[in-house]
């Protein structure tokens, strides 16, 4: 193997490592619901769906609940432990094993790898990783219907996040909740970004 192959291989390996999937956030809501009527909330972990032993651990459930509480209070909603809260905020997490495959696309235009003509050959690399998801469902407590749902998908259990999991979970929840109406008493049309 010559120096060009080694350099190309190191470049592709570095590219794969740096291309870890970012956190992707999406949301959905019921446009028929007038959210101006809501001002109080209660947060609950969805115990049936938090099956992942790591991301769904009690430690991470507390981190998510605290971040949700801070986000909602920052938007003007008021927390209550009362059963009569306007909104019930339920969240859960899950994880899936994923595989990323990448090619360096360095094949020669002269066909068959072009080894005699300066081509480098096409090399394919793969990596295994765990994809995590945090889902926040917000229900109208009177009807028990979801009025808003937000979710984030990406890698939360990375080496980079190991030192400060509090911040990783807080940032993930904040990125989800920035799509929720900006303050209590506003409707979706006036508050979405």
TrEMBL record:
<protein>
    <submittedName>
        <fullName>DUF4136 domain-containing protein</fullName>
    </submittedName>
</protein>
<dbReference type="InterPro" id="IPR025411">
    <property type="entry name" value="DUF4136"/>
</dbReference>
<dbReference type="Pfam" id="PF13590">
    <property type="entry name" value="DUF4136"/>
</dbReference>
<feature type="domain" description="DUF4136">
    <location>
        <begin position="25"/>
        <end position="181"/>
    </location>
</feature>
